[in-house]
Amino acid sequence: MNTDSISPAPSAADARTGATARPAEEKPYRKGYRLPPGLRDEIAAAHRTRPALTVACALTDVVTALAAAVVCAWLLTALNPLVSIPAAIAGCLFIARQLRALENLTHEASHYNWSRHHRRWNDVLGWLLSGLPTGGRLSAYRESHLRHHGRFGTSEDPDRRRYAELDLEALRRTSVWAFASSVAVRITRYQIGWLREVKTDLFATAGVLLWSVVCATLPSALLVGPGTGVLSGVLWLVSAFVVLPVLRLIAESDEHIYSDCDTVFDATITNVGFVQRVLIHPHADGYHTVHHLWPGIPHHSLRRVHTTLMTQDPDYGRRIRMRQRLLETPRAVSSSS
Questions:
Q1: What confidence tens digit (pLDDT) does each residue in 30-48 have?
Q2: pTM above the 0.85 mark?
């Protein structure tokens, strides 16, 4: 088990002077995986970015989320509450899922996976199409997330800090109710910590509010009516500030188990179940082991690389930790490298 800090024994000089020994610098987890030489060309090719595809994904997420907000708002004004309210709840879940997809594309932009060779456009498009609708500040997120990769497993790793503060590895996955209650008791502290880590401020929050008015409320008000316009904006904000943090907490709690290993490979979980792929980890975010081994592989190539490694590298297929169901806890294994 990796410890957060290791203090060396005091030297003889320290003992004579009474000086306190300085703690040794923490070392990030080693990768713990070696790629077979015959697959190197394929991994290198998988780093190729496809800006048009990523832009199309972002626009699809935005447009479908806005359409859901308008439709659900209209249902609330036109149908019996027994029908419209469940539809609105389902609509908020769908909108939050699309916002989670946009957050994953902000994550892609932090690694320059929208466009490797045109970094300014990478940041402009990433912020405009995915960061702005979700309140994400790309520069702050990039700084935090690259610390997660560069200082993985140390006390400087922001994800490990949240795991420790919220005891995310102890989420109870024995039943839907147990899991939901575990998430519920953590969600407020989680969201406060998340906003602090990514440096969300009044400007970023105002950006989300303005975006919801300009892109959700006004168009639906003009198309359907003022009442529907206001409701669509409300549904959007409920999805962004109430439902989305829940999906994000679940997604983050899925990604790692730090407590029983000391390599990146063994501490990272791949989530490939239907619910994970469709709802919790859109845009191939569930293929997290591949992402940590090669952060420069864009979202559209992660699944293909995972499949290739599963079929062509027995070591990868034997050691990878995967979750097939949301309530499943992967078997804890130690690194064999």
A1: 999 999 999 999 999 999 9
A2: yes
